[in-house]
UniProtKB/TrEMBL annotation:
It comes from Mycena pura. This is Translin. GO terms for cellular component: cytoplasm; nucleus. It comes from the Eukaryota. InterPro entries: Translin_C, Translin_fam, Translin_N, Translin_sf.
Amino acid sequence: MPSAAILQVFEHFREDIDDANDRRERLIKASRDVTNISKKAIFLLHRLILEDSGDERALALRAASEGRAKLAESHAIFALMRPELVGDRFWRHHRQVSPGLQEYIEALSFAHYLEQGTLISYAQVQAALSDADGPFFTLPVADYLLGLSDLTGELMRFAISNLGRRSGRTKANEVCAFVRNCKADFELFTPHVRDLCKKQHVTASSLEKIEAAAYTVVVRGSEYDLAPEALDDIVSKASARFSDHDSHQDHVVYNDV
């Protein structure tokens, strides 16, 4: 083969490699942008759901609506990612896309829980990752499960933050049962989904914190037959103790984003 032809072949290889590297960098940035929007949506949901309101149901619906509106900002980013992930390119660049996708699912599932009190389905997440032209890309089942696993940490914060509020103890018990069921159901998938086992340890820790906080309330209330005001004071102190460590961790993580 003439040397000119060999050079042309390697020139083509260089162009392919450069194109792949450029695409990788664009996808990393897009994924980080989605992660940033999703984290802001989660903060928004936590802030709104703790506002004083005489109608807890209306407050939850408003929080979910505003959270979804915030998440909608990421749709333009997903639309730009679509042509970058055609065919086998999705799996080639899956590691760059996955972090932002999981964070998006975590935020979306939190808004869905506040709105419906249930776990969001795979079909509902795939529908959220679509526009009039169809899906941005096919949602991997592993990312769906890993995103839902992250939800349990947000539910732990939600439950403990609500303990000091009126009817918060009932809500905490509901969340505790929900997280316990999630942990049991996710356990079935740990042999098949990479990293899910690690996230199950985090879910177990979140469940323990909810149970410990709820236990404090029940024991103190039954031992001393406390008035509601005194019980709420104990609950507030217990809530602060259980959430301080996580708040500090969140502050560090979000400052690094």
